[in-house]
Amino acid sequence: MFEKIFNKYFRHFGFFYTYIGPKLFLLILMSLFVGLLDGFGLAMFMPIFQIAADGENISSGDNMGDLKFLLDGIEWLGLELNLNSVVFFMVALFLFKALFKFLDGYIKIKLQNQFVRKIRFQMVEGLSELDYKHFLNLDSGKVQNTLSSEAVKITYGFLSYFNSIQHLVLLLVYIGLAFLSNWQFAILVSLGGYLSNFLFRFFFTRTEKESINLSNLGHQFQSYLIQAVHNFKYLKATDYFASYNQKLKSVINQIENGQKKIGVYGAVMASLREPIILLVVLIIIMIQINFMEGSLSTIILSLLFFYRSLNYVVTLQGSWQGFISNIGGVISSVNLINDFKSGQEVFNQSNEVKRITALAINTASFKYPNGFQVLKNVDLEIEPLKTYAFVGESGSGKTTLVNMLIGLFHPSEGQIIVNGQNRNEVNLASYRKRFGYITQEPVIFNDNIYNNVTLWADKTEENLEKFQKAVTLANIHQFIDTLPEKAETRLGDNGVMVSGGQKQRISIARELFKDVDVLIFDEATSALDSETEKLIQDNIDMLMGKFTMIIIAHRLSTIRKVDTISLMDKGRIIASGKFEDLVSENGQFKRMVELQEF
């Protein structure tokens, strides 16, 4: 029962509380002080009105109801009840209110920064700690949209939610003060306000539904947009952009229609709030005067409080509407964090790998959760400072083997042994640091050359020396020296400002700067022209003997000098040896060589 009530009325508060903690109650306390001090200050207008009407000192505080204790407080301070003391007391109350109002705003900003920073850090860390196999099952559009657009909604959602909490506290304070001044009038107005709220609940429900739908449409749009950018060349060359645009425009129309609905709901509520509440108050005044034999003078102070509370009814509904409009971002962020947690990679925190001196695969197999088997009973021993190549048709398991070797996948059966230990018993993060990974499509960031090679390392004397050594080994130093801005030259989005060969050598320099033990080249030359391929091949040849190297090759001419070539077929290593030995002893490898130009 308690859990059901909590989930219905306090689940959002519970969510924010998990990130901020008891400090939230301090924010509520500040609002309470602001409301009380403001209400007490307003109550002091009644004795001022009495003095203005009678022209004498205050004879009684009957028109203040149970708030007469404020006048008693003035006398308790040893002051005479006259215009000067009442005005002085009222000014003091409003000054204290201003102080607490400042503290309220200051605390809210600090808590907002704390909350947004913490939840965005959590999402970024969750992404970095995600298991690679789990990442493959995620929608990239959802990830990008949540980390960018939806995360912005969290900020507005936080502010709107706690504005609503504060406005609710102030509303309750003024209603409470109205009860103290005229409880019959207060009960009738509260009842009327409660009944009118049923109308607004209809619009709140529709707004929440549209907000969640908008977040899902945002995920779709980001996904389609990512694919449009990634496949731009193909869509442009085939003139498929026209039909692809229709899909993008369709999603945009759905998003804008959803925004329109939320805007209309907000406009309807904004236009109805004041008329409905004023109508309720006027009806209650007529009922109390005509049917309950009340007098207008007995409800003036209560009416003053209700006029004040009217503002907070309007702002409460407005801020709650703002929160509901952004609730899709909160839900998307929570769902993404939960997705990251469910797929979090668990590391053995002990047994750090400082150097890889021995590496072996013992009867290892790998299959995906759907049962599709990619590798079968692979045995392999990798000796330090030697170069190994894996060849075979597409789908033979070459890339999966490398992914398993580098630690992106774990064997379904069998073991990977590093330095004589089962890899499950060592710290996987420290193990991966010992690898350099150069892919077919070079990874280039939209930054300068130095930051691309060092990944934003500080420009200390040691790092600058390591940078020069890395670019020299990667044979890119001469090109850098010809540039006007040298290592500060920006490379553009995905390295658009440099050639494919230069991007590849910058990628190699990055792995060399990292000071690795094993270099992996995953078809690193297959996307290059013959002349550039020759330059990268010379680079690889120069690195042989300096590092343990693993090469996945499509062009067999690039692996003639390696120590061991392994031929793969249907997830198995079916033959291993030097180039010339495989040509003479293995018919399948010989046919592969004959089909390629050397």
Any descriptors?
single chain; alpha/beta; ABC transporter transmembrane region fold; Rossmann fold; 2 domains; 6-stranded mixed β-sheet; 10% strand
| Structural class computed from helices and strand pairing | alpha/beta
Low-confidence stretches: none
Which class of the largest domain in CATH terms? Mainly Alpha
Shape: elongated
- Domain tally: 2
Question: What is the CATH H-level superfamily of the largest domain?
Answer: ABC transporter type 1, transmembrane domain
Number of helices: 22
What is the CATH architecture term of the largest domain? Up-down Bundle
> What fraction, in percent, of the residue positions are helical?
55-70%
What is the CATH T-level topology of the largest domain? ABC transporter transmembrane region fold
Would you tell me the overall average pLDDT?
Answer: 79
Distance between the termini: 77 Å
What does it look like?
By secondary structure, this protein is α/β, with parallel strands linked by helices. It folds into two domains: 2-342, ABC transporter transmembrane region fold (Up-down Bundle), CATH 1.20.1560.10; 385-412 and 426-595, Rossmann fold, CATH 3.40.50.300. 63% of the residues lie in helices and 10% in strands. The protein has helices at residues 2-9, 11-20, 23-43, 45-54, 69-76, 83-128, 132-135, 140-181, 183-230, 232-237, 241-291, 300-325, 327-342, 398-406, 428-432, 449-454, 461-473, 477-481, 500-513, 530-543, 579-585, 587-595; strands spanning 359-367, 373-382, 387-391, 413-418, 421-422, 435-438, 518-522, 548-552, 564-569, 572-577. The strands form two sheets. A six-stranded mixed β-sheet has the order 6-7-8-3-9-10, with helices on both faces. Helix 20 links the parallel strand 7 and strand 8 (548-552). Helix 3 (23-43) runs parallel beside helix 8 (140-181), helix 6 runs antiparallel to helix 8 and helix 6 runs parallel beside helix 13. The longest helix is centred in the middle third of the chain and has 51 residues, at 241-291. The protein is elongated, with a radius of gyration of 36 Å. The N and C termini lie far apart (77 Å).
